[in-house]
């Protein structure tokens, strides 16, 4: 009986403590509720002065109909002269006047003069595709312009894409491919034809005398790659790879002796040197002679004819192909494949900043690639895609 009285006395003594806890919880709930309802019902902040940089939540709507609603909402980068004494680069996203006429198709041919108009420091960055990949292409372009990189060109494989990009103010040229405007599907005969177009394009641009950073449309730039590539002026080619195990733990070129995976031609940089031009020609001849050879397999077969020795002790370059070509492999942790970026987040483990991500190592086709980029919030989508009105209630918890 005495024990029961002691328990009652202890509970009574602790009552102020419980009252304090309950009061704190109730006050917190009331404050949070007030914050939520005030956020929902308060008038929206004005947005007229906002500029668009790398925030994909505030990106202007994407239109697949070739309209020009995109360009009016983009913040304009400050373009610099392409080379000393040359003309200024034309501003990207600056749409032609709506009452103007589309220039004749002939004026969109790939020429040395066209490349020279866009090149900066003798470098041109190129991707290409058909209308089915227009949203990927706009994503690719927007990432570069957000990084203040504008020495770029897009190759259009069909006139529908060419016209749409022209009216959006994107530098575009006609590849003369007469490609279908639909998604042809990875691995299909038409897909392999697109790969051959890449090889033809490389062979067309290199004789112009410009360095070429060639990119697939299913990759995005997260950091300006040009200063990194410029660190290796002796390289004839710098290529990405499908390596999934890190060969270096910093931002040096990959250790070529440890790279056993394929060289990936979705991101690679060419200089107009004699060995690079020779490899490009042999690659083209190989593919044109046998339509069953995949373009990437053909490149690997030629580049790996010889591997080594190292060019020097420090650069990470090595001799490849015919023994005269100087090749470097971009580090897998920061020039990321789909595996090293999305699955491993290798760059985070090594505390590095990624330059690029390429949506490889996923098996859901084009929709899978689009989903991967959206999941990482680096795909160009209208704001309502991420914040559908009326479907989500913002709640802020404070501890």
Automatic annotation (TrEMBL):
Superkingdom per UniProt: Eukaryota
Listed GO biological process terms: cell wall pectin biosynthetic process
Residue stretches of biased makeup (Polar residues): 67-90
Region Disordered: start-end pairs: 67-100
Membrane-traversing stretches: 21-41
GO cellular component, one term: Golgi apparatus
Cleaved signal peptide residues: none
Keywords for the protein's UniProt record, in alphabetical order: Membrane, Transmembrane, Transmembrane helix
Residue ranges occupied by any Nucleotide-diphospho-sugar transferase domain in the UniProt entry: 149-373
Keyword Oxidoreductase: no
Keyword Membrane belongs to the record: yes
A single GO molecular function term of this UniProt record: arabinosyltransferase activity
Pfam families reported for this sequence: Nucleotid_trans (PF03407)
Name of the protein in question: Nucleotide-diphospho-sugar transferase domain-containing protein
């Amino acid at each position: 009986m005495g024990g029961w009285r002691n328990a009652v006395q202890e509970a009574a003594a602790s009552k102020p403590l419980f009252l304090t806890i309950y009061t704190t919880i109730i006050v917190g709930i009331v404050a949070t509720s007030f914050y939520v309802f005030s956020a929902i019902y308060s008038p929206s902040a004005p947005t007229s002065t906002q500029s668009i940089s790398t925030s994909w939540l505030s990106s202007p709507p994407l239109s697949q109909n070739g309209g020009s609603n995109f360009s009016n909402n983009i913040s304009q980068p400050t373009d610099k002269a392409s080379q000393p004494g040359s003309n200024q680069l034309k501003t990207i996203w600056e749409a032609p006047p709506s009452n103007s006429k589309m220039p004749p198709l002939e004026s969109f041919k790939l020429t040395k003069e066209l490349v020279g108009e866009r090149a900066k420091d003798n470098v041109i960055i190129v991707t290409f595709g058909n209308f089915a990949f227009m949203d990927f292409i706009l994503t690719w372009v927007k990432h570069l312009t957000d990084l203040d990189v504008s020495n770029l060109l897009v190759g259009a494989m069909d006139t529908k894409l060419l016209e749409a990009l022209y009216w959006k103010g994107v530098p575009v040229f006609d590849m003369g491919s007469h490609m279908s405007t639909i998604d042809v599907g990875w691995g299909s005969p038409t897909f392999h034809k697109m790969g051959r177009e890449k090889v033809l394009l490389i062979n067309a641009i290199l004789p112009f005398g410009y360095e070429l950073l060639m990119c697939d449309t299913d990759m995005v730039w997260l950091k300006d790659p040009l200063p990194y590539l410029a660190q290796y002026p002796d390289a004839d080619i710098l290529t990405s790879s499908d390596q999934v195990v890190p060969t270096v733990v910093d931002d040096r070129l990959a250790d070529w002796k440890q790279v056993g995976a394929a060289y990936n031609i979705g991101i690679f940089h060419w200089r107009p040197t004699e060995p690079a031009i020779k490899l490009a020609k042999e690659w083209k001849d190989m593919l044109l002679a046998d339509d069953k050879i995949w373009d990437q397999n053909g490149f690997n077969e030629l580049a790996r004819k010889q591997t080594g020795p190292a060019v020097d002790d420090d650069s990470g370059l090595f001799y490849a192909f015919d023994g005269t070509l100087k090749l470097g492999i971009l580090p897998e942790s920061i020039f990321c494949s789909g595996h090293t970026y999305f699955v491993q987040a290798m760059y985070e483990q090594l505390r590095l900043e990624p330059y690029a991500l390429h949506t490889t190592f996923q098996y859901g086709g084009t929709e899978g690639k689009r989903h991967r980029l959206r999941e990482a919030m680096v795909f160009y989508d209208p704001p309502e895609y991420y914040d559908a009105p009326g479907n989500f209630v913002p709640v802020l918890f404070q501890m």
